[in-house]
Amino acid sequence: MPIEIDEVLRRSDQGKTEPYICRGSDNKIYFVKGKSAGYDSLVKEWVAGQLGRRLGLPIPRFSIVVVPRELYEAGRSGALSGLGFGSLFGSENVENANEISFVNVEKAPAELKRDIAAFDWWIKNGDRTLTDAGGNPNILWLEATRRLFVIDHNLAFDEEVTLTSQLECHIFRKSLAEICDDAGLRDHYNTRFDNALLDLPRILGDIPERWHYVDDACTVDINLSLDRVDNLLKRHRVPAFWERT
User: Fold this and answer.
1) Structural domain boundaries of the chain?
2) Is the confidence at residue 245, as pLDDT, over 80?
3) Predicted confidence (pLDDT) per residue in 104-154, tens digit
4) pTM of the predicted model, to two decimals?
5) CA angle at 151 for the pair 11 and 93, rounded to the nearest 5°
6) Who has greater pLDDT, 11 or 131?
7) How far apart are CA 122 and CA 196, in angstroms?
């Protein structure tokens, strides 16, 4: 059952998509991405998030949320101009979490770091970077419990991302290198990717029809082919997937 948005609290100043911070009908707080984020980014969030959850990654609960048209219309000429209405993407707020810092990277479990590094290379997500000079990790950190949460996949399925670029810039690039150099780990992740892909038809089928179009009249397709996504996610079946150049 989709969660209806009852109230828009404000717009976040964090992240390129500047999601709207909203209260849902379940009284929980959600970061909602809609019209201004681009409907192709909602598709990316949905597909990547669903696959990530199937791999066991700590991704905050997310769902398709519904913004009533009357709520949007009340503020479309002002603060809500970039929100849109109908089915949008909502990610549940993680209380007391902050963006992970460079000093906390070593505190994360080694296996989890490998999982995240492998996942981001699989989905071609180059938007999880961090070095001692800074970056954009898109990982939340709860210091009290030393838990991390993986967020923001709106730039996944990027054809420009390469294994070389991930090994140079990814926050867990050392973990990715470990996988590349270990045949057992490579086989481990290839099997997990194949298992996750068993649900891909269902994941793609659950995408709201509206998200396939740029405009409200639903006449212009988004610049993201689901066939391309499908082919991209099967790259791991070729040995060169893990080969450094």
Assistant:
1) 3-95+198-213, 98-196
2) no
3) 999 999 999 999 999 999 999 999 999 878 889 999 999 989 999 999 999
4) 0.96
5) 50
6) 11
7) 12
